[in-house]
Amino acid sequence: MNGRDIVDALVEAPVVTSFTRIGYVVRSRLDGWRPLQGYDLSGRVIVLTGATSGLGKAAAMQLADCGATLVLVGRDADRNDQAVAAIIESSGNSNVTQVAADMGDYEQVKALAKRVLADHDRLDVLIHNAGALTADRRTAPDGTEATVASQVVGPFLLTSLLLDRLATTPQSRVLTMSSGGMYSSGLTVSGLQMSEAEYRGTEQYARAKRAQVVLNEMWAERFGGLGIHFHAMHPGWASTPGVDASLPTFSKIMGPLLRSPEQGADTLVWLAADELPLQLNGGFWLDRRPRSTHKLRGTKNAETPDRRQRLWDWVSETCGNEPTLPDGEPVAG
Description:
There is one protein chain. The chain folds into two domains: 1-32, no CATH class; 40-319, 3-Layer(aba) Sandwich (Rossmann fold), CATH 3.40.50.720. 47% of the residues lie in helices and 11% in strands. The protein has 14 helices and eight strands. It has helices spanning 3-12, 15-19, 21-30, 54-65, 77-91, 106-119, 146-161, 163-167, 201-223, 241-246, 248-254, 261-273, 297-301, 305-319, and strands at 45-49, 69-74, 96-100, 125-128, 173-177, 229-233, 283-286, 289-290. It has an eight-stranded mixed β-sheet with strand order 3-2-1-4-5-6-7-8, with helices on both faces. Helix 4 (54-65) links the parallel strand 1 (45-49) and strand 2. Helix 4 crosses helix 12 (261-273) and helix 6 (106-119) runs parallel beside helix 7. The two termini are 36 Å apart.
């Protein structure tokens, strides 16, 4: 372990220093980060969900500044159009379009995939960023709990439908915006959807985020051989409209230490642009370094091979799509 690794480990140990803007500032200086504006993404097609506010909009701004061809996805077409106009005006990059789709509505996800395939003959990066933490329990059109539908099942379906296009695009990537909150929750399949009686928004969100990270690893294991790189990351604690609305007390107390949306989105944009992520697959990242997916022994013990397989099977069945290799053969578990 070199000196930089030692300092990083010292910052990583206490969550407060690691997840707040302190960790971002120390690590960016420690590792001499290349500025995001130094990357040229001209000609690369990037689909980004949850792009109209917070981390998604910050990432979209940065990607547009780098010259990427962007497809922004959000539930409301008017808000999408406003985001597109703002990004084009700010970046001068006119290669920004939008598609309205709710990631928890699988028919809309299918329509989104069809539109992407019709409009673009390549797909360099698919970014799953859409997500929200709600205080009350809601359901998607198919009856699945809404957090799970929009953040676990919908992204899985979209990845499946775009898999062939990703496989034919060199150095393609699928990136998932998770959350440090998943560290508190172990993998569960039978309890993935919390009932009305037990529902707590923060816990439901953590369970969904844990499932996202596990599926990211499984995608890499099963389809990494196609040349697609799958990575998940978490942004640390960032100040966004979503955090302010869903966790007002936390936002008020931690306000001075919270990262800006741009700081929270930095690693996501870097994963889309840099060459280093191509050396690994299935990683989980914070501040441009791979991190452990567990901080508690209990969450690690809960993640058995059988439970991982049951998660994959349940999500496949729920969205009605079993991912296959280009020759049509399913991948063995």
